[in-house]
Amino acid sequence: MDMNGNALMRSVQKQFGYVEQFDLHCLTATVQEALEFSASLRLPASEDVTRIIQATLDILELHGDRGKRISDLSNEQSKRVTIGVELVANPSILFLDEPTSGLDVHAAKVVLDAILRIARSGRTVICTIHQPSFVLFAMFDALVLLRTGGNMVYVGPLNGGNAIVEYFEAIPGIRKCRDRENPASYMLDVMAANPRTDFSSIYKASALYADNERTIAAASAPTQLRMPARRRQSNYATQLYYLGLRTTRKYWRTREYSLGRVLITVFVAGIFGVLYRRGDGLQYTTQLQSQALLVFVGPLFMGIISVITVNESLGLPVVDAERMVFFRERASGMYATLPYAIVFALVEVPYVVMNSLVFSGLFYILVGLKATADAFTWFCGYYFLYNLFATYLGQLLVVILPDLRTAVMATGGLNSLMSLFAGFFIHKDNIPAAWSFMYWMSPLHYVLEGMMCTQYADNHASIALSSKGTILSRENTTVSAYVFEMFGGGLSADNNVPNVGFLGLCIAVVKISTFLAMKFVSASARGRHFITMADSDNESYDSSSPRSSSYDDWTKEPLVGEKLCVYLLHWDKATQDHPDIFDTTLIKPKDPTTIYRCVSECVIHYHSTTLTRAQFELEYGMPPRSRDEEIMRLRHAMLAQYLTEVEMDRKK
């Protein structure tokens, strides 16, 4: 692509702004904070960020809403914020993808009024819009009208809609525009009513096309673009600062997650302490077994709670939804993946530290563990490391797996494996040789060894080999000897430093994996799969596509993409590709027996999108259907259409 006769370089692309159809933001941020975040990361240091933000608020009329959280805004207010996030980057050309989608007439008018003010401020504004009202349509200065296949039908001025009406009325055989008829509806209606008319060829033969070509040729002469060549507006330090500021605010304002973790921690620690509260110390081996089990199960259980909490409370509002915000902002050049991944890791640390201290303090005192500062410190340290590992593991699973349900299932499986091979339920010597590597790979093994050794390794107190009221043996043993024997000699008191080092390595591996997944796994490569039928004029059928196989072959292939949409084959395209099936005169299947084959050929076109279920229903006016349901619906619809047309022909 060229611009003013020059190849479009990355530095020039930064003069463009792109407003997506859907409003993807950090919902806990205020309007002012969202604009400051975008401007601070995308504008050079020499720019007056405050002045640009104030001007943007004026143009979009958002001064009164600047302190509101984005989650509290209406649809049209959110759309204006989306526009503002791009506008503060001070682009020369602003692209907007369906800015009125999902808005009522009044809200759409408010948004387009704001867009018009942007255009009048000296910027070029290009919008895609579908079937606007007469008032909205008249607000545009020029129109590029496309039909199936991206072929241009009209490129020229609108003059309030009069120009496009005059153009179509001048074409032989095209009806006149009725009084008070919306010009936008008129042009779409005449195109749909005349499928055999080649409007693209008519446009190419017109004087308007010749004038446009001369204008393009003159503008294509190489000229010096007076644009600064900036590769990046902000360095990593700046990105870390603003990302850290926003993420810290987000966590602080998401009280249901932050406070919920603390309450769960207090509840579980209290339950453990109440069930096993020892005021008279350890006297019997059965008491020691119960206490050792709690020392192992406590971190294990809270680790699982951490992962589940991350998946269910953090995964949906922060990891899952925020992931789409990350892709949008990274594509806009706000920041790189590495600073985002670093901030996303560091922001969890204070909360994990707090939870670790709360759990360790309550659990340690109530259960009656070793009352020394050294033992308590080691217990807190091991619990913190495992809790942090479990939290980061939950983030990784949400990032790399298709949905939350799969992530939760994977969490249960991984925790079961780690606990099974930790050395508590099965001693190291009893693990089959082929599975012995799992013993050394399980982080819980190192947590177990560290906690058991720091609690019992130097405890030489005598303890009876019996339970209360039952004598199993008249010989006593020491606490340390019994613990080492209980674990089959698989513990060593000298491994604290290696244990901590391995846990740190596990944490690093999980975070690096999360970073790589965020960098290389695209937004459309994961997600729930839905299909629907879209307007046939929005997509053309490509019979040369490798997906163009029979229905039976297609159903054997795995479904890929964020969502799957089925597009009904356009009738006029069908007559060209399948003359054996379609009657080119009546533009319908020759025989009802061919309908199933026709549908099989129609439902092989894939389209990837990033719609959530709610956005899907808003866009298409119906909930997502399964593949089989949609194919059956298409077949019934085509059969009904065929029978209706046959009946009409019979009556004629």
UniProtKB/TrEMBL annotation:
Residue ranges of domain ABC transporter in the record: 9-101
Classification via Gene3D superfamilies: P-loop containing nucleotide triphosphate hydrolases
All residue ranges annotated as the ABC-2 type transporter transmembrane domain in the record: 238-455
Cellular localization per UniProt: Membrane
Primary localisation category: membrane
Any Pfam family matching the protein: ABC2_membrane
Listed transmembrane segments: 259-276, 296-319, 340-369, 375-400, 407-426, 500-521
Membrane-topology descriptor: Multi-pass membrane protein
Protein name according to UniProt: ABC transporter domain-containing protein
Organism expressing this protein natively: Aphanomyces astaci
